Amino acid sequence: MIHPTVARVTERVQARSAATRAAYEARMQHAAANVPARSSLSCGNLAHGFAASGTEDKLALKRTRRPNIAIVSSYNDMLSAHQPFERFPAIIKDAVRTVGAVAQFAGGVPAMCDGVTQGRTGMELSLFSRDTIAMATGIALSHAMFDGALMLGICDKIVPGLVIASAVFGHLPIIFVPGGPMTTGLSNSEKSRVRQLFAEGKVGRDELLEAESASYHGPGTCTFYGTANSNQMLMEVMGLHLPGASFVPPNTGLRDALTRAAARRVVAIDANGAEPTPFWRVFDTRAVINGVVGLLATGGSTNHTLHLVAMAAAAGIRLTWDDFDELSSVVPLVTRIYPNGQADVNHFHAAGGMALLISDLLDARLLHADVTTVAGPGLDRYRQEPYLTESGDVAWRDGPRTTGDAAVLAPLDKPFAPDGGLRVLHGALGRAVIKVSAVKPEHRIVEAPALVFDDQDALLAAFKEGKLERDFIAVVRFQGPKANGMPELHKLTPTLGVLQDKGFKVALVTDGRMSGASGKVPAAIHVTPESAEGGPLARVREGDVIRLDAMAGVLEVKVDAAEFAARAPAIYDPRISAYGTGRELFEIFRRSTGGAERGASVFDVAFGESELVDA
Question: Do 326 and 414 touch, CB atoms closer than 8 A?
């Protein structure tokens, strides 16, 4: 039996989603009736589809009976996480030929890095890149040439965008194929120390760059537990990776063997394979709830309070922040990975990793075991871990049952915290989320006067001028999706951390995002309704006393309610974000995006989410 709270939330989401999920499943079954779609193409259509293929592949595609697997990739060689994907298409094509199939590179999707754009205007495109990736994937799969797909993606917006598109093409079998993390570099504690010294002006740019280069030093994902690595955890706990695939380093024999195994497996689960398993049967409400539980148990990225909502909506599932909040009350925090600790994902993997995490959560009845996965029925097979055989192939064996390092991956009976550390805040300033897994208990309640900023640069300028040596709550407004695309404000973390270390009571309240690396300073983020739409943050004035209470779930302004409501809201000038760094191309996104609580998605109407209400 599943934990009663998990059961209750799951049943509530299923009831709330009954109409939209039923409509979604009907669409998938209709699409499945036309598989393989390639057989319905005209001769001219089909000839265009294989004109550049080799002789053997061309012959197979002419006959239309052999499966054709689409490869959709986020490869580029500027960004460390995506560079390893350069080798994957050749590996995949060779692997599928061994099981009588063909693979074609169907399309590439954009992959931007929040680490590069952090604090820059390019960050204002970051969240919208998710929906762009979904649309680009839709174009890649629109040719009706394919019987299944492999999604090669790993970082912040790439995986959510690929999942949204996978749901739309959910009649196909789809497996996600990660690239793996880079090897461990400079310790996270040392990196944080140098960043704060730079914020205080005690070291220069050369010293900072040396530290950052020693941290981010090779191919693979950054090793802290931000959105990229939260994505990998989610894909595994939701059954969209092969077991144990998430944190195997790139350019290793085991990583290549896992990629070959995924290629062969997607053929086995196609409509005419031995175990037909379309994406829509894997990605159901139970899988989504498993994803939320995994996120909470590991202290994962706050960005997924947006992404999981948007991903679920694409499959007709109506997930809300209140579902996160209720699950957080019963899911213990069992990992300490930076920024929630000093270890990185390689340490987590060595301590037992996903196999142990999933095993423990299953034993605690916090995960739905009776799900469909790309590896077969039931989540129990994800208790296993992969290993490389003498022949160079991959096989699976039982994973560890006890942690190799309780300081990194704790047993469930001795967790780091009794809850998941994610809260929903309510009050006169709207609704927001806060991640407290890295915030010390003494900093979780802050009541102080507001200092109001219209962008992060204004706050940083005030710090440099010595104007922030005091208790305060920074209100950084006009950072929501309709204003400027909801950029991450992680650049503020070292500055606010310096002030907190000096003994000041500080916090951040914003309708923007922080990041997957939200850290030790309390931050009420994703405030909705956003200030650009006249939300309450637009009425806050400097000196207003704000109370942020992460324990009670309160976000209040201590101003008479009638007086506060009568204030004229500050007005955002949309011309600020209208031009430069490609922002003019995304004006239609800013106009049409939904609010943060609905995933900040441009697909609200398409997925029936414009009238999202709790049931």
Answer: no
**Which of 42-46, 397-401, 464-468, 538-542 is the least confident region?**
42-46
Tens-place pLDDT, residues 210-240: 888 888 889 999 998 989 999 999 999 999 9
Half-sphere exposure of 198 (CA within 13 A, CB side): 19
CA 37, distance to chain mean position in Å, is 31
Question: Does CATH place domain 422-577 in 3.40.50.300?
Answer: no
Rounded to an integer, what distance in angstroms lies between the CA atom of residue 382 and that of residue 374? 11
Nearest to 539 by CA among 523, 527, 550: 527
Quick one: which of 588, 582, 567, 475 has its CA closest to 527?
Answer: 475
Reading the block at residue 462, the tokens are 């005030």
CA distances from 433 to 42, 136, 253, 402 (A): 52, 30, 41, 33
The sign of the torsion formed by the CA atoms of 558, 560, 565, 566 equals: negative
Beta strands, E only, 303-430: 372-373, 376-377, 384-388, 394-398, 422-425
What span, in angstroms and rounded, lies between the C-alpha atoms of 517 and 508?
Answer: 15
pLDDT for residue 615 is more than 60: no
In our burial notation (b when 16+ CB lie closer than 10 A, e otherwise), range 333-359 reads bbbbbbbbbbbbbbbbbebbbbbbbbb
Query: At which residue do the structure tokens 């994406």 appear?
Result: 279
Distance of CA 252 to the CA centre of its chain: 25
Round to whole Å and give the CA distance between 174 and 518.
31
Residue 12 has pLDDT above 70, yes or no: yes
Q: Are 304 and 234 in contact (CB under 8 A)?
A: yes
Residues 6+ apart with CB under 8 A from 519: 339, 438, 493, 497
Residue extents of the structural domains in the chain? 4-183+218-398, 422-577
29-80 pLDDT tens trace: 999 987 777 778 888 998 899 889 998 888 888 877 789 999 999 999 999 9
Sign of the torsion angle spanned by Cα atoms 299, 303, 309, 310? negative
From the CB of residue 63, how many other CB atoms can be counted at a distance below 10 Å? 9
Q: What is the pLDDT of residue 520?
A: 86
**What CA–CA distance (Å, rounded) separates 401 from 111?**
37
Determine contact, residues 274/268, Cβ cutoff 8 Å: yes
With cut-offs at 50, 70 and 90, classify the pLDDT of residue 517. Answer: low
DSSP H helices, 51-125, are: 55-63, 88-97, 114-117
- Return d(Cα 615, Cα 609) in angstroms, integer: 14
Query: What per-residue confidence (pLDDT) applies to 518?
Result: 63
The dihedral formed by the CA atoms of 366, 370, 371 and 373, expressed in degrees to the nearest 10: 110
What percentage of the chain has pLDDT greater than the value 90? 80
CA 150 to chain centre: 18
